[in-house]
Amino acid sequence: MASGTALVYDEEMTRYKLLWVDPTCKIEVPERLTVSYAALQQHGLAQRCVPLPVREATDQDILLAHSEEYLEAVKTTPHLSLEELMTFTQQYGDVYFHPNIYHCAKLAVGATLQLVDSVMTAQVRNGVALVRPPGHHSQRSEANGFCIFNNVAIATLYAQKRHNVKRVLIVDWDIHHGQGLQYCFEEDPSVLYFSWHRYQHQRFWPNLRDSDFDCVGKARGAGFNVNLPWNKVGMDNSDYLSAFFHVLLPVAYEFCPELVLVSAGFDSAIGDPEGHMRATPDVFAHLTHLLMPLAGGKLCAILEGGYNLTSLAQSVCQTVQTLLGDPAPRPGGLTGPCESALESVQCVRAAHRQYWACFKHTVGLIVEPSTKLCKQEEEEDQGAEEEAQWQEPPPRPNPPIRTAAVVPPGARLPDSCSRETGSLSQGAEEALRNMDPAGLVEGLLPSLGNVFTLVDKIVTKKVRNGLALVPDVPSAVSCVVQKVLASGTDRVLLVFLGEGEVPVEVSDDGRVLVLQICTREVEKRKSQYHVPVCLEKTGRIASAFIHAVLSLVLPVGYGFNPGLVLLALGGGGGGVVGVEQWAQLTALLQGLAQGQTLALLQQESGEEILTATVSSLLGGLTPSLGPLGALDPLEVQEVETQRHRLQDKWGLLRTAARSSSAEGQRQPPI
Ligand code: Q9C
Ligand code: ZN
């Protein structure tokens, strides 16, 4: 199983800079790399990564995405005089050349390809490349926006050619539109390109009509270019997470990538002089975490922009620490996206409804794309804005033991836990071996006492997460919820998969929130803290399940911000969920509560589900669901009903602006 996080960096890429006065280019400085790398070292993160040497990209590599003429032109730049460099630079937009930039640009591409090679050959699971110059604005025959060669475009084509990768997802979370990436892949259905970007109705650089939400790709690539333009500045963590829950992730799961490349620009973070957004560095822990269950964990993050050195360094650390598997910080204050963000989300969903099953039910109203500006917004934009201030993200506590289990005796499991009989599959045995021996209560009755001990260890952060096999899940749930609340945990999120009434008191003090996924109608308590979702047991359950998780479970869970997640798989729970879906859910929910998850499984759940749970809690690879097909309209309706019922309380559930007449306000016709 691939493990480890690669870090590709070479100081040589700091050895070029702007040699003349140019206010647009002066922010792209060598210190961007040095502060990022120094922060990784200071936090002990660089030392935990697998260092990979850079290499120079070959002509052949570069020609995957660029013309020969352009490459030959760039090749002349090391020999030009200062004056000639300035003249050469003038044929392109918002970029500068330097005698050493061609060398650095070859290293930036080569660093990216080294990372892709090591991930694709499973030498590491994932990794990050700290590179300069960035790449996503660079086009076939053009330098642009500080970019010389398109690192991520070349890496995509290289992965497809060299490693036979079929589907690549590019997530461009830089605050500028990576038009170079869009142009490279807009006719290509094997590459899904997602970009959010500051747009302001085309008034923000690069001021392209092509960046709007209705540019969805061309010819066979229609539907595989997803643009989410931000028409205001000041977007925050709620806006970014909404974009992931309601735009990127549904499409990404449906697409089922074999590799995820992140155009990781951190000019989308607070304090950045280009982006003017308000998302804090810790949001990148969550964005990263949410992408890690895709593509069997094969994720490469490649640096693009990021011009506030403080914000940049903190954001890079959050990203790398998450790739390393440390628990994400608790996501606080997520009350929901702003109206402008919701308008954008609504528009892009509508523009893509003919291409993706996950959006089929959205109201087809297309809000006119464009440049039309309302006067009011223009004035607002010009208003004085306050200097951004934010706290440095606190250290992320990582308990000494990752996973502990309470396993009862009985025919199947106890022997396996003792590891001598080998009656468990190799995977399960190996997984159990990595657990805390103290948490493995071998040959003992699974008394509630052992479960309570485990709860204490999780709550006091001696153990990060755990699982318990219990004789009766509903009664164990009932006891454990009380125990957790008594232990001083502020809030518990219970995600209950299975039939019947969940025996948990849901009072309006807001300390317990119950999300139930089942196959039969359950009694519906009219509470904002009880969310029942009934999915039919159909062949298309895989689509419906992940749809419910992305559109309902995660938004409510992130808004609720529990101190502990209880994941219960009751009897019959297996009817709702296959082992891959369960593993996805378990992996995704670990973004909450600093990864403090306790899974309760019915004793007689199969070995397969046990193995999957242990593996997921230990941070193992999450199996992919495969490309998802159509969604059952009745199941969509069920999810929509709950979303509409609860969206005033849990703002992250919203997918449309209030001012519009679209899906936010009425039930979609199905
Ligand atoms: N203030 C990257 O982030 N200048 N490139 C825009 C508007 C160009 C950004 C001027 C910004 C290029 C990789
Ligand atoms: Zn940028």
From TrEMBL:
Top-level taxon of the source organism: Eukaryota
Assigned GO CC terms: nucleus
Residue ranges, compositional bias (Acidic residues): 377-389
Region (Disordered): 374-402
Family: Belongs to the histone deacetylase family. HD type 2 subfamily.
Protein name in the entry: Histone deacetylase domain-containing protein
InterPro entries: HDACs, His_deacetylse_dom, His_deacetylse_dom_sf, Ureohydrolase_dom_sf
Single GO MF annotation: hydrolase activity
Residue ranges constituting the Histone deacetylase domain according to the UniProt record: 28-322
Keywords for the protein's UniProt record, in alphabetical order: Hydrolase, Nucleus
Organism annotation: Conger conger (Conger eel)
GO terms of biological process kind: epigenetic regulation of gene expression
Pfam families according to UniProt: Hist_deacetyl (PF00850)
Subcellular location: Nucleus
SUPFAM superfamilies linked: Arginase/deacetylase
